[in-house]
Amino acid sequence: xxxxxxxxxxxxxxxxxxxxxxxxxxxxxxxxxxxxxxxxxxxxxxxxxxxxxxxxxxxxxxxxxxxxxxxxxxxxxxxxxxxxxxxxxxxxxxxxxxxxxxxxxxxxxxxxxxxxxxxxxxxxxxxxxxxxxxxxxxxxxxxxxxxxxxxxxx
Length: 154
What we know:
Blueprint: E1 2-5, E2 10-12, E3 15-17, E4 21-25, E5 28-30, H1 35-61, H2 65-70, H3 72-95, E6 102-104, E7 109-112, E8 114-121, E9 124-138, E10 147-153
Antiparallel strand pairs: 1-4, 2-3, 4-8, 5-7, 6-7, 8-9, 9-10
C-alpha cells in the first residue's frame, strides 16, 4: 500500500475527491529465497500430477463395469487425490497469481499489476477505483530510495 496526499481536490468526469490522502493498494511479495520461482515449480509439479490422475480416471471410465468394480478402491483413492491436488492448485493460484499478472519491482519485490484506489474514512477504506502499473523506474533525484511509479487508473 502506498499513498499520495492531494493538496487540492481532484476531479475526473463526475467524481470529485477532496484534498486528502488517497491510498493505492495491491499485493506484493519479497523475493527471498526465490519464492516466486519455487512457487512456479510447485505449480508445475502439481499440474503434472493432476494431469496424471485425470488420465488414470479417464482410463477407468472407459473400462467395463466388471473391471471398474474390481478397481473401485484404487478409483476412490485417485478421486480423493484429484480433489486434494485441485485444492492445492486453487490455493496456489489464490496466493500467487499467474506471471502475466505480476511485475518485478525494486529491492527484490514482485507486485500484482492491478490494484485498488481507496480513501480512508472512519478507519475504513472505501474503494473509489482501480489502477494498473505500467512500469516502476528508479527515481531521477539520484536518491536510491526514490522511485517513480507510472500507472493508469480506470
